[in-house]
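User: Run a structure prediction on this.
Assistant: Running it now.
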Amino acid sequence: MNPNKALWEKGDFTRLAETMRESGAALVSKLGITKGLKVLDLGCGDGTTAIPSAKLGADVLGVDIASNLVEAGNKRVKAEGLTNITFQEGDATDLHELEDESFDLVVSIFGAMFAPKPLDVAKEMVRVTRPGGRIVMGNWIPGDPTLVAQILKISSAYTPPPPEGFISPMLWGVEDQVIERFANAGVAKEDISFERDTFNFAVASPPSEFLDRFKTYYGPTMNAFEAAEKNGKAAELKQELETLFNNQNKSGSSDSTLIPATFLKVTVNRR
C-alpha cells in the first residue's frame, strides 16, 4: 500500500479538523472567491477549506489520498445540502484524472505539502491551473516555535530515521525551496509571493484532552507514540507534548484550548 495513503488513513483526521473549522473559513474568505469559480482543493481532508469555498459559490472538487476523509467530506456536503462540491480520491503527485488548465484556483492547506515527490506535486498543481489562475498553499514552517512544527519536531526524536531519499514535507515551508519547485514547473520567481499567517486550533476542552486527539487520531503522532512505546519512552513523549500544549494555550482558561500556529502562505500566479 502507498505509505502516504496509509499514514493519512490511520486514525481519523476529522477529529483534528473539527478544531480548525473557523480558521479554515477565515482563510477562504480572503481568497476572493466568486460564484462559479472552479476550485480544486488538494489534500482537502474532510473539507475544512473546500466546504467554505463552496458556500461562497465556487464549483469545488476536493481531492484527498485518504478514502476515509473523502467519505467524511462527502457526508458533510450532503448534510450541508451543497450541490456544487464533490470529493474524490487522488494523489497530489499524479492528478492524471484531471484535465490540463481546468481550475481557476488550486488550494492546498497543509495537504499537498505531505505528499512525496514535491517536484511532481508542483508540476501537477501548475498543470491543472488555467492561465490567469492562482495556486494558494498553506505550509507549516520548519523550526517554527508554534504548535504543529514543534509537534512534528518532538515526534521525530522518538521515531526511527526516515527511509533513504525521504524529503521532509516541512521544506514546503522554506521560501527558496518553494521557488525552486515551482521554477521547475515553469513558474517565474516574480509570480510567487509569500506571507506569514496564523491558523488557530480551538476546542472547548483542556490542552491535555486536545493532545489526546493527536495521540489517538493523527497519523504522525500515532506513529511517534507507537515507536516510543517500543522504546519505553511513551511517558516521556507525552510529558514533552503536554508541556508544549499547555505553554501554547492562549485561551486564558485551563478548561479550553486556543492555540495559534504560524504557517507560510504561498500564492502562485499562473501565466
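The mean pLDDT is 97.
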